[in-house]
Amino acid sequence: MKPEVAVGRRRLLAVSLVALAGTVALLTVGVGTVVAAAAGAASQEEGCLACHGAAGLTLTLPGGESFPISVDPAVLRRSTHGSALTCATCHPDHTRYPHPPLTARTLRDYRVARAQICTTCHSQEAGQFAGSIHGRALVMGFPDVPTCTSCHGAHDVVRASAPAFRNNTPQLCGTCHGDPQIMARYGLLPVYEAYTREFHGVTTALYKLTKPYSPTPAAICYDCHGVHDIKDTEDPAAPVAPRNILTTCRRCHPTAGRFFASAWTEHKTPGPGASPLVWYVQIFYRVLIPAVLGFLAVLTVLDLSRWAGDRLKGRPR
């Protein structure tokens, strides 16, 4: 081997060793940084829960409203955010104590401000919500419009794909859409009660009772109305608009004929002014079924009476 070739190989080996040592050092520093950050986050969360883990804590806003500020550590850990976020992720202004005073005067203001934090990670959903009937109503200042925490909770957020979230969605929507006073303020029908009496609502209720860990196969609110992009039912682009409703039905009922959607009562309670044919059929069966059962009951009583009388008189049957 020529001397200059041997020198070149030694230099190459030396450079490789230096590069390897540098890589190991960087990895060590990186892993150490990640571990230190995780330890710091855990320590910070423990610090928050040292106060907020106590039950029964409340905070009174300048407007006089109070809301709970206690956090159940077990509930927080079980939530979908429990293992992914820290307290400071959603409360970046409260990493030091004493905390800065809240700028919100009312609970409504506070919840709207909290929703802005959600957009940090959920920007796509926030964009859809901004264009929805709920998002536009929120900008207009209507006080009953839901924000993120109204539907998803705060420290007990569950994954939207979880069976429990799907099965409980009608009841969740019914918090507002089943309240006659709230609906009256906006000229809307309290449709929740009607939904619970429909086939889809009854099926969902049975699933909650018998199969709580399985998602109901029946249509629930967001299957037909959308999720964060819910539109006014009178919007031509709404999935439940007259020209779109059959297409929406065919997502679950692919063989539905063109008159399939006409059987839907639009969450209206049947009566003389809404789906009168359904109302007349309901009345017919409400009379027919008790009459038949009553007639059978009378026949049974008469037959038993005659049998008992014959037995007492010693007559053969």
Describe the model.
This protein has helices spanning 3-52, 73-78, 87-90, 107-118, 123-130, 133-139, 148-152, 163-177, 180-185, 192-197, 199-210, 221-225, 245-249, 276-313, and strands spanning 58-60, 66-68. It is mostly helical. A hairpin with a 5-residue loop joins β1 (58-60) and β2 (66-68). Helices cover 56% and strands 2% of the residues. The chain has a two-stranded antiparallel sheet. It is elongated and about 120 Å long. The N and C termini lie far apart (125 Å).
Q: What's the quick description here?
A:
This protein has 317 residues and is mainly alpha-helical. It has helices spanning 3-52, 73-78, 87-90, 107-118, 123-130, 133-139, 148-152, 163-177, 180-185, 192-197, 199-210, 221-225, 245-249, 276-313; strands at residues 58-60, 66-68.
Runs with pLDDT <50, length 5+? none
Shape descriptor reads elongated
Order of helices and strands: HEEHHHHHHHHHHHHH
Number of helices: 14
Overall mean pLDDT stands at 88
Question: Numbering strands along the chain, what is their spatial order in the largest sheet?
Answer: 1-2
Task: Report Rg.
Answer: 32 Å
Biggest sheet details:
2 strands, antiparallel
Structural class: mainly alpha
Number of strands: 2
Helix % is: 55-70%
Distance between the termini: 125 Å
Strand composition percent: under 5%
List keywords for this structure.
317 residues; mainly alpha; two-stranded antiparallel ribbon
Furnish the topology, listing elements before pairings.
Elements (H helix, E strand, L loop, with lengths): L2 H50 L5 E3 L5 E3 L4 H6 L8 H4 L16 H12 L4 H8 L2 H7 L8 H5 L10 H15 L2 H6 L6 H6 L1 H12 L10 H5 L19 H5 L26 H38 L4
Antiparallel strand pairs: 1-2
Helix pairs in contact: 8-11
